[in-house]
Design brief:
The protein is of the alpha/beta class and 276 residues long. The protein has 13 helices and eight strands. α4 links the parallel β3 and β4. α2 packs parallel to α3 and α4 packs parallel to α5. The longest helix is centred in the last third of the chain and has 17 residues. It starts with a helix and ends with a helix.
Amino acid sequence: MRASRIKHKLSQDEPVLITQLHLLDASLFELTSLMGFDGIWMDMEHHTYSLETATQLMRAARIGSSDILARPANGEYMRIGRMLEAGAQGIMYPRCSNAAEAAEVVKWAKFAPLGKRGFDGSGADMPYCTMPVADYVQQANENTFITIQLEEQSAVDQAEEIAAVPGVDALMLGPADFSILEGFPGQFNHPQMQTAIQTIATAAANQGKHWGMPTFNLEHAQQLLQQGARMLYHMADIIFVKNGLEQMQQQFSQIGFSFDNQLTDSASHYTQGKKS
């Protein structure tokens, strides 16, 4: 069975860097994994592609060394097992409300005695009926990692209890949804956000667990590392493509090229409308 790169590095107290891939080209998953990123965040909470498509993308990632961290939607417990069987090493569970819900995630992601995950063995994780059942169950429990995402104040207030759940490996703050749900959308330096970060960091440290969140830039990443974060999530393929295209337009506009950038025009109209 393929060992988890992320769980190994965390066991050595090494930081891990995870990037998000939105675009459905298997070459991107293959490239990212071959380049040695610790993990690829596969977001199936928001994206509309099927588990069948996700399976092909995970297969491409197995060429390299990256783990797949798959995020189902809240309450999609049955999908967790299928994601793991398809080859995901980790589960990111969103919008967790309390310790009881976190325990449900562990129940569906871990085999007995840690949980009640159902056995199949024909998927990529075993892989393909090639291991003794007892060995597979043991190695799956050892290598599968679970990240619980806290995205509102009531959940952050229970961070200590959630971190204490056996089988939970890490806590993750979802800053965008947290800011929206708590009434200060996009204000990532808001005092309530900073307090939430410290609350999660303290809870993880007290329970001997890891924690992390998306990083906004290198300086922010360094701050999080100093606060004890070990799971950092940075950027996404669609942002890299957008930034690259914008840079090309900026450079070529200097030598006389012009562009009908409808996105820039739309943003300008929106801004003017907000000001009027």
